[in-house]
Amino acid sequence: MRHFNLPSLALATATLAMASPAFAQDMCGFGDGQWIGGSEAASDMTTADAHQEQMALVLGGNEYVSLFTLSGPTNVRVEAQGRGAGDPLLDLYDATGSILLSDDDSGGGGAARAETQLDAGTYCVAVKSYDGAPLTAFVRVGRTEQEALTTGAESDVVIDDPDVAMASGSCAEARPLDGSLANGLTGTASVSENAFWSFSLAQDTPVSLTASNSDADPVMTLRDADGNHIDENDDFDGLDSRIEYSDTGLAAGDYCIEVRALDGDDLPIAVAVTEYDPVAAQMALYASGDVAPPLDGSVPFTDLGVLETRLRQDVATTGQMSWFALEMPEAGLLLAESVSVGNEGDPLMVAFDDLGRQVGRNDDYGDGYDSLIAARVNAGTYLVGVRQLDEVATGSVRMVFERYTAAR
Which of 68, 80, 226, 286 reaches 20 to 30 Å from 102, CA-CA? Predict the structure, then answer.
């Protein structure tokens, strides 16, 4: 399953807010965002009397970013519901730009929804269109006891596509994962063979839960032993799924993992529960392009020097980002393009400034699978990354960087 985004050169993100909220700059790695309550003080969901909501119009494969704060540990619900046939994707970030969770359809009927406990701090909800089509959506943030925007997937899921495999069975019939938590609890089966896996934690433990096989495009749902919904993820690492509990960890108890396949119930899906490794998790974010790596050399990058006018670079790409640094000597338009050599492959490209703020991201430009980023930037150092959308794919890519300045 591929994501098709319109070129950022042709369209820009337009935003509408129900209460004309103020803009907040440079939060969570984004250049701008809007306080969900209209101001920072009114966006503290720990003390808010009711949920807060905005209306967003998203164009051009870009994102709408809502911000909120918490003055203490709080159980929150974040949701995005599209108008008409709109299908929003939702990502939750902390203030450093680290992604905490992603969701596509847990709200039911194409809506996105996630519930989680967060510590005090500032957070960003980024909403974009699943297929790159123009999207009008409502974004809501509230505590879990406050009124929900969506119905939830369990009460409103209608699957008409015969190629979408729904899990059969129940948590009562779950197969135990093999191994130990220290070395990883694992299991592999297709959805038609086994769709439910069980595991137990003797104590509160930071853990990572994964479901992997990008050809199958797995959706993973975490439930308690009675089958009650706890959390869900679709596309975290490319088309693979991941749920992480990194701070206080997942509470001691018995759990069930439900697995669905969006692209074939006969394909094997590897399910794993491992102890959370913060270093490995951060490196995975660099490899996927969700976060910009530091410029200290801990993550390899190629220094292309000053971009005078036009520069070409050939790259042998894999499913992990190859990073390039370049210098814009003055403010202007930075254009970067990734073209598959031989028209094979599907490159994904991202661009960040030297502070780690994302200035561009694109998967598919025009009628093919090539990528294009056009961003108006200031003088400074920029990181551009390229990888194959499919994490197990390889392919040769020709990158072109061009610099344009305003007429004088």
Answer: 226
